[in-house]
Design a protein that fits this description.
It comes from Streptomyces laculatispora. Pfam families: zf-HC2. This is Mycothiol system anti-sigma-R factor. The structure is a single chain. The chain contains six helices and two strands. It is mostly helical. The chain has one domain. The chain has a two-stranded antiparallel ribbon with strand order 1-2. Helix 3 crosses helix 4. The chain starts with 10 loop residues before the first helix and ends with a helix. About 5% of the residues are buried.
C-alpha cells in the first residue's frame, strides 16, 4: 500500500514494521520517523489506528489467559527463524501434541 505521495520514510517500510512500532520494539529514532510519517500520510495513519484498536481488543479479551510455556517457546522459536530469514516449516504450532483451535490459527 502506498498513498502515492513522496515521504522521507516509504509507506511500505512503515507498514512492514508497524507491529514493531505498536509494540515499541524499535529504536526511538525509528519511532520518531514513523510518527512523522503518520502525521503526513492519512492511509498509514488509518492502518495504524485500526491495528492499534485490534491490539487493544485482543488484550482486553484475551489478556488474562496464561500461555503454556511450551507454546511460548515454539512461537518464539518460529519468530527467531523468521527474523533470521530461515525457511519456516508449514506445520501448525501445537501445545503438547494438541492442535490449536481453528480460530487461533487465523
Amino acid at each position: 500500500m502506498s498513498c502515492g505521495e513522496p515521504h522521507e520514510t516509504d509507506c511500505s517500510e512503515v507498514l512492514d514494521h508497524l507491529y514493531e512500532f505498536l509494540d515499541r520494539e524499535m529504536p526511538d529514532s525509528d519511532c520518531t520517523k514513523f510518527e512523522t510519517h503518520f502525521g503526513e500520510c492519512s492511509p498509514c495513519l488509518e492502518k495504524y489506528g485500526l491495528e492499534q484498536a485490534v491490539k487493544k481488543l485482543v488484550k482486553r479479551c484475551c489478556g488474562q489467559d496464561d500461555v503454556p510455556t511450551d507454546l511460548r517457546s515454539k512461537v518464539m522459536g518460529r519468530i527467531d527463524l523468521i527474523r533470521s530469514g530461515q525457511a519456516v516449516p508449514e506445520q501448525d504450532v501445537s501445545v503438547s501434541g494438541a492442535e490449536l483451535p481453528a480460530t487461533a490459527k487465523e
